[in-house]
User: Which sequence fits this backbone?
């Protein structure tokens, strides 16, 4: 995994072509890059991110940003208390319990 300017990317290596291939993860826009060495791959990654951000600025649109994985919510104290009790009863933290509840809601 590589990161540049807050954009994480996954990397794969193709032994047959002797190339590294990378793709930014966590964005709707597809941003890919490649290189034949680690140095070339890093330079390509930084170049495509800089070009992407410049293109967005020129087009007057907000660049897509990767999600951080953090969601902050506000609720009333009674709901907060009920969530904590449910999490404790299931042997989970509030975050673990909320994650499971969100996944279940999205699936159903």
Assistant:
């Amino acid at each position: 995994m590589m990161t540049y300017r807050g954009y994480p990317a996954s990397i794969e290596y193709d032994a047959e072509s002797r190339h590294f291939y990378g793709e930014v993860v966590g964005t709707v826009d597809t941003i890919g890059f490649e290189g034949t060495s680690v140095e070339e791959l890093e330079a390509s990654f930084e170049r495509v991110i800089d070009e992407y951000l410049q293109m967005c600025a020129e087009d007057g649109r907000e660049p897509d940003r990767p999600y951080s994985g953090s969601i902050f919510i506000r609720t009333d104290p009674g709901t907060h208390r009920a969530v904590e009790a449910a999490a404790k009863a299931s042997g989970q933290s509030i975050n673990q319990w909320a994650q499971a509840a969100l996944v279940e809601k999205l699936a159903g």
User: Anything to note?
Assistant: The chain has two domains: 2-59, 77-107. The chain has a mean pLDDT of 93. The longest helix spans residues 38-59. The longest strand covers residues 7-14.
